[in-house]
Fold each of these.
Amino acid sequence: MEKTYDIIIVGGGPVGLFAAFYAGLRNTKVLLLEALTDLGGQVQTLYPDKKIWDVAGLPGASGRELIDRLKKQLAKFPVDVQTEAKVTDIVRVGGNWQIAINDGQTSVTGRSVILATGKGAFEPRRLQIDNEAELEGHGLSYFAPDLSLYKNQEVAVLGGGDSAVDLAEQLDSIAKRTYLIHRRDQFRALEQAVLALEQTKVIKKTPKKVKSAQKTADGRLELTLQHVKDKDQQEQLVVDNLLVQYGFLTKGQADTGWQVDLDWDSAGIVVTDQMKTKQPGLFAIGDASSYPNHVDLIATGFGQAPAAVNAAIAAIDPDRGGPGHSSSMNL
Ligand SMILES: Cc1cc2nc3c(=O)[nH]c(=O)nc-3n(C[C@H](O)[C@H](O)[C@H](O)COP(=O)(O)OP(=O)(O)OC[C@H]3O[C@@H](n4cnc5c(N)ncnc54)[C@H](O)[C@@H]3O)c2cc1C
């Protein structure tokens, strides 16, 4: 029989991660769903190397460090986590919430749901060539979660920001040959990352863009690179993999396609006390939530998460005692 979770948290950004931890601490059956391959939301996706100064007790932690710490904290409890699980619908069934994942490929049921969806699900900014969809997963990728897969391969990284430069630099010691293709001569990445790149054997192709890509008979990718200022200047480059690192976009917070009726304003889902939406058992926290003078800060969401979890538990099990202090627990 399908498991019914006490609390399903939608969105694995910093606020969803902390909410999942706190729900685990309170001994509930919890599921955390994240659309992307990596947990960490905006912090991990948009600024992993920037220092964050305004999270209590963590002066000057990088985005990556903050997310690593949240993941470590979450691992304390047996919380189910599904990545690459985009919530595409939320419907009330009986007294529970049924959640469709990836256009109904699977569904899960929860007694309550906490929406920690931030500014909406991120999508990679795609390579604009005709056969992009055909090539994705067949040499063309937007994510590189396991760099060891590129051992002894020829890899082209596309982009000029932090993620492209960092990735090319890391691949240099793993791949047989690494190319970095960027439409400008200068890279936008942090100075430190660009300096590190200079110490590698990465072959830079600038100012160039990928005009087209074709599969070769032996399953590799043949790229046609075009000089951005002189269209007639073209060259062919054959590689095993093309990793596009153009950053991410979101479709917009309210463009969810969910059937559930929620009140949205320009800042997010309107909530009242204890982060309640207008629907019973449905809460919104972090950047996804909206109320007068709400500020989009990680610290704000960290305060909201326990409020929503405690309210969800009180609704599911009114006889359960209050939260207590973690320092009294034997963890
Ligand atoms: C450049 C930059 C610098 C910043 N610096 C700071 C700072 O120094 N200090 C600070 O406090 N704040 C800072 N912020 C703001 C901070 O990053 C956000 O307030 C914080 O990330 C909000 O966390 P969240 O978990 O609510 O949402 P997010 O981080 O946006 O995470 C939401 C997650 O939900 C997922 N999601 C969305 N829709 C779905 C769906 N349908 N199904 C499944 N998953 C879904 C998304 O993929 C994402 O991973 C900065 C923001 C930016 C852009």
Amino acid sequence: MKLTFLGTAAAEGIPSAFCDCPTCDHARQHLGKNVRKRQAVLVNDDLLIDNGPDVYAACGMYGISLVQVKYNLITHSHSDHFLGSNLAMRTRSFRRQSTIVPMQLTAPPSVFKLFGQGNDEALDLTRMTIVPNQSFELPPYRIQSLTASHHEASGDAMNFIIDDGSKKLLFASDTGMYKEQVWDEMAGHSFDLIIIESTTTDTDHQKVHLNYSGVHTMLEKMEQIGAKRPDTTVYVSHFSHQHNPSHDELVELYGRTGIHVAYDGMTLEL
Ligand SMILES: [Zn+2]
Ligand SMILES: [Zn+2]
Ligand SMILES: [Zn+2]
């Protein structure tokens, strides 16, 4: 399994254009790994998780094409995770190839509501509606959606367990602490890789996002049920400038407990 992080920030990005907090100012001065675009992750070359406002810029920066993407899997309807107009660029009037790999937009009802009805044929697009706590196949991937603890208004936010036949990934963003039922939904799984959000590192509330201690509480619970093994690789991502320090400081902080810090453009091969 290969993963490419197209973005690793929460809704505002880092630096946020309208902010001069220490984290944003530091990012402007030092650039590099401190600059974070809104989160999206490419699995292998054919499964794109989320499709937000920075996906086009990220593809340009990292020399990535999305022509091989068969599945666009969306976690929830927040604007940093889904921008429908990205998909409009698939129409024949906006591309030179006469054929393109058809794409299946696999998303919860709230995302389709946002996307609206369009000419899917012109986009070479099909739709598959999913809901939390559902098992489904996007061959070769076997996927299970988990109920995320996220803003009620976002509707049907989901996390995903993704199995590509050789490795199993837990994609845990955007979410606060899982509700009890989710641990039952996760029972029996054992992850090779966990990507977990760390949106609000220095704050206390864990209802819709996680902070440093929330990440560790979630991981401890996964250990207890056998979902996280001693050799499971863990990366944190989806950072907000409001609560997180620079990349190097995050590496130092999370490195104490063996957790890795994702950055934009990073490729990970398992
Ligand atoms: Zn988000
Ligand atoms: Zn800021
Ligand atoms: Zn969100």
